[in-house]
């Protein structure tokens, strides 16, 4: 993962800084909150001293989305690994190229009579 991404997410995980809370009415009354927002990158908006909303800088919001995407990818990988660990018989033989061609031809030769019967309508 990128270190910049982790730094931006760490800002969010660190919580709100002192002074990064503003009242919802202050958003209309003055523009002082913009200076606080520029410094802290996120501001909690309060309505009657209760959390109402959180404003995030675009780079923090993008970092969160990227971080979630990375976590989802890691989770998917772990889920597939767990599935194969629980069912070792389900592991596939991933052959390619000439080896795969040879195995396919052998399989067709071994089942020649069965395949011929299906094609001719005997079975």
Number of domains: 2
State Rg.
30 Å
Low-confidence stretches: none
Order of helices and strands: HEHHEEHHH
Q: Strand fraction band?
A: 5-15%
**Alpha-beta content class:** alpha+beta
Count of helical regions = 6
Tell the overall outline: rod-shaped
Share of residues in helices? 55-70%
Strand line-up of the largest beta sheet:
1-2-3
* Largest sheet features: 3 strands, mixed
Tell me what you see in this structure:
This protein is α+β, with helices and mostly antiparallel strands. The protein folds into two domains: 92 residues, no CATH class; 31 residues. It contains six helices and three strands; from the N terminus they run H-E-H-H-E-E-H-H-H. The protein has a three-stranded mixed beta sheet with strand order 1-2-3. It is rod-shaped, with a radius of gyration of 30 Å.
């Amino acid at each position: 993962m990128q270190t910049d991404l982790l730094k931006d997410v760490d800002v969010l995980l660190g919580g709100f800084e002192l002074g990064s809370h503003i009242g919802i009415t202050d958003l209309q009354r003055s523009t002082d909150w913009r200076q606080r927002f520029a410094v802290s990158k996120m501001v909690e908006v309060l309505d009657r001293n209760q959390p109402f909303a959180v404003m995030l800088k675009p780079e923090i919001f993008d970092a969160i989305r990227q971080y979630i995407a990375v976590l989802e990818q890691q989770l998917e990988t772990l889920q597939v690994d767990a599935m194969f660990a629980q069912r070792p018989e389900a592991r596939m033989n991933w052959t390619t190229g000439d080896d795969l061609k040879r195995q396919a031809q052998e399989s067709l030769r071994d089942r020649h009579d069965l395949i011929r019967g299906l094609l001719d309508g005997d079975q």
